[in-house]
Amino acid sequence: MNKGTVKFYNNLKGFGFIKDDDSSKEYYVNSSGLKENIQENDKVSFDLEEGKKGLNAVNVKRS
C-alpha cells in the first residue's frame, strides 16, 4: 500500500492526480478507483494498477 497526497481532484469530471510520498511520482486516479471521496491535499493510501497510459492509483482512501 502506497501513501501520498492528492495534488488535484475534479469531482465533476471524476479524475485527478496523487503524488507519492516516497518517490514523488504522480499517479492518475479515476473516480472508479476510489473507496471514499477525496479532496485536494488529502493524505491517502492507494494501490497501483497498470492502465492504458501507465500506472493508476486504485483502492484510494484517506489515511
Automatic annotation (TrEMBL):
MF annotations from Gene Ontology: DNA binding
A Pfam family reported for this protein in Swiss-Prot or TrEMBL: CSD
Entry's localization field: Cytoplasm
Main location: cytoplasm
Keywords, comma-separated and alphabetical: Cytoplasm, DNA-binding
InterPro entries per UniProt: Cold_shock_CspA, Cold_shock_domain, CSD, CSP_DNA-bd, NA-bd_OB-fold
Keyword Cytoplasm applies: yes
Superkingdom of origin: Bacteria
Protein name per the record: Cold-shock DNA-binding protein family
Native species: Draconibacterium orientale
